[in-house]
Amino acid sequence: MVKTFLKENLKVIPIILLGGIGMSYFIWKECCESITAFYWIAAFTSTLWLALWLGNAFLSDWLSLFYNWKTQPLQRFAIGVVAMVVYTVGIVYVIISVYSLSGFNLGDDLKQTYISTVVITLIITMFMTGRAFLLNWKQTEIDAEKARRESAVARYDSLKNQVNPHFLFNSLNALTNLVYEDKDKAVSFIKQLSQVYRYVLESADKELVSIEEELDFLKSYIFLQEIRFGQKLKITLSINNKKGLIAPLALQMLIENAIKHNVISENNPLLVEVYEEEKYWTVRNKINVKSNLEESIGKGLKNIQERYGYVSDLPVMIKNEKGYFTVSIPILQS
Prior knowledge:
Elements: H1 2-9, H2 12-27, H3 35-66, H4 73-101, H5 109-162, H6 165-181, H7 183-203, E1 209-210, H8 211-229, E2 233-238, E3 245-246, H9 250-261, E4 270-277, E5 280-286, H10 299-311, E6 317-321, E7 324-330
Parallel strand pairs: 2-4
Antiparallel strand pairs: 1-3, 4-5, 5-7, 6-7
Helix pairs in contact: 2-3, 3-4, 4-5, 5-10, 6-7, 6-8, 7-8
């Protein structure tokens, strides 16, 4: 951090030194008395400028590592002001003491110099800290609005993902076969299909829904898929705790990804597991990727990551190891 800070502020140092020398010449009348006095005063003023300018700047950057302007603006502002006041008062006192011990005598101007330096620096520091607070607050609002727009787009993409012609075409094909084979099951299929589409339409404008609502929808969706694929597809649900919130259609999209990207056949049945693990809901399936798969993998996952990035600080965890593909999404609280 120190190297990066010095590299970024290297060009500023000559300007600070020139400012200190210029201030010495125009403000301190003792500079005109002798060249020695000018050297001492110029060195003293330049040291003050360097210590105050660069020191407060470094302190500000260092505090931002622990207190983020966007997530903790009030804490960052309050702690920043207190830290800079303490640093400014302390460093001015230390510099004056060091120069006094070195033989540089400020005489009657010592107290006035100390007070005026501290006051001017504190005014500038308060101004800069307040400015940083306002700029970051404004940026937070911009980021929040951007996230809202991205969330709306993500929800719309989720809606399109479900009401696309392929899903409807496959469902109607399965229904056509059922009508001739089992009329009672065909009636159940129609009811579940209507439940799926009703949920999709009702949740389109929601950022989060209860896990209970999502599971009711998921059962209808799983029923449709298992009717379509028969014994070639098995989806297990192991979620006992129905407390918590989830982004709508998130679990469904993960199951849809598994169905879309993997071989499903009599010889290679697909097992998809949906279960609760610590603070996450997890969807896991064995990898048997289709050879003619289109380059669309990752779009659904990105959709889910963007939506969770808006509503939570917890990450969506994705693992591809030991022949299994696993995605875990955090359990959110109200």
